[in-house]
UniProtKB/TrEMBL annotation:
<feature type="transmembrane region" description="Helical">
    <location>
        <begin position="6"/>
        <end position="25"/>
    </location>
</feature>
<keyword id="KW-1133">Transmembrane helix</keyword>
<dbReference type="InterPro" id="IPR019587">
    <property type="entry name" value="Polyketide_cyclase/dehydratase"/>
</dbReference>
<keyword id="KW-0812">Transmembrane</keyword>
<keyword id="KW-0472">Membrane</keyword>
<protein>
    <submittedName>
        <fullName>SRPBCC family protein</fullName>
    </submittedName>
</protein>
<dbReference type="InterPro" id="IPR023393">
    <property type="entry name" value="START-like_dom_sf"/>
</dbReference>
<dbReference type="Pfam" id="PF10604">
    <property type="entry name" value="Polyketide_cyc2"/>
</dbReference>
Length: 177
């Protein structure tokens, strides 16, 4: 019986420690990756602005080739969207909409991850000497839930690798053509 109380005490200390630790974590998490692509922005922009082109470079399509994708009525620019369903738990179900589109410069998105909430995404295309610096970012509000805030600590590692693969996919498509 004494061992039970020791384990119970340890569990309580662990839960309290997690809660106190989470109080010091920010609720908003930002992930960003950038890559210089040796091409002008007008060759890169359509790969991001036209939602049907995402299948060509999306890191998540590679994770689940059987992912089900449904496109909205509009193909490109503000208002263009698509939804996805995957049996892969790392991809899940969601919906992405382009909320702002400035030709050859900037695209903003809202991505609804259903139970996980909405993430704000951006793609910036900045001219540099060797071509275009493409920056892909995502900002998520993890809320005040202690476990979600702790999970936010891992977002950069998890999502950042996907962003790097996606940017490399865009680069392969642009350089190949």
């Amino acid at each position: 019986m004494q061992a039970f109380f020791i384990l119970l005490g340890a569990l309580i200390v662990l839960v309290l420690g997690l809660f106190i630790f989470s109080l010091f974590l920010p609720p908003v998490v930002k992930v960003e990756r950038s890559l210089v692509i040796a091409a002008p922005a007008d060759r890169i922009f359509p790969l991001i602005n036209v939602v049907r082109n995402w299948e060509l470079w999306s890191p998540w399509k590679e994770l689940d080739p059987d992912i089900s994708i449904t496109y909205g009525e509009k193909d490109s620019g503000a208002g263009a969207s698509y939804s996805w369903k995957s049996h892969n738990r790392n991809i899940g179900t969601g919906h992405m909409t382009i909320t702002e589109s400035r030709p050859d410069q900037y695209i903003a998105t809202d991505t609804d991850f259903m139970r996980m909430g909405i993430a704000k995404g951006t793609f910036r295309l900045d001219p540099v000497g060797e071509g275009t610096l493409v920056s892909w970012s995502m900002t998520c509000n993890m809320g005040q839930h202690p476990l979600r805030k702790v999970m936010g600590l891992m977002m950069d590692k998890w999502v950042g690798q996907d962003f790097e693969k996606g940017l490399e996919g865009i680069k392969r498509l642009v350089v190949r053509n």
